[in-house]
Design goal:
By secondary structure, this protein is of the alpha/beta class. It is 43% helix and 21% strand. It has 5 helices and 5 strands, in the order E-H-E-H-E-H-E-H-E-H. A 5-stranded parallel β-sheet has the order 2-1-3-4-5, with helices on both faces. Strand 1, helix 1 and strand 2 form a beta-alpha-beta unit. Helix 1 packs across helix 5. It is globular. The relative contact order is 0.19.
């Protein structure tokens, strides 16, 4: 019996980051849908389809916090990882969303191997 692949929704306005993380996570056994347009990502999001969301915080148009709010309206229990190179957001994320079973902060630059291991560990807890 094969293990279920985790489905990841990845949202980052930087095309290169989306491509690198998408490829790296796929090589580590994940199914990944990557978007550079946060509005499109929210429109495509389906409850009970994705296992986890990775979202950049600073994006033009709507930021990662707004993406979070819109996705939460569709699925109250999905795990969301905020991505950012800015340390100031780490404390903000932990203050605004203190439940680590639903929200975590990942500092850029992201090593996809470390991220994949972290996601797998989280999936073992489900």
């Amino acid at each position: 019996m094969s293990q279920k692949l985790l489905r990841v929704l990845l949202v980052d306005d930087e095309h290169d980051i989306v491509q690198v993380l998408k490829l790296g996570l796929k090589l580590n056994g994940f199914e990944v849908d990557g978007f550079t347009d946060p509005r499109q990502a929210v429109e495509q999001f389906q409850p009970d389809y994705y296992d986890v969301v990775l979202v950049d915080i600073r994006m033009p148009g709507i930021d990662g916090f707004e993406v979070y709010r819109r996705i939460r309206q569709k699925d109250a229990n999905i795990k969301i990882y905020f991505l950012s190179a800015f340390d100031v957001y780490e404390s903000q994320v932990k203050e605004m969303y203190p439940d680590p079973s639903l929200v975590e902060f990942v500092r850029k630059p992201v090593n996809y191997k470390v991220l994949a291991q972290h996601l797998m560990k989280d999936s073992d807890l489900r």
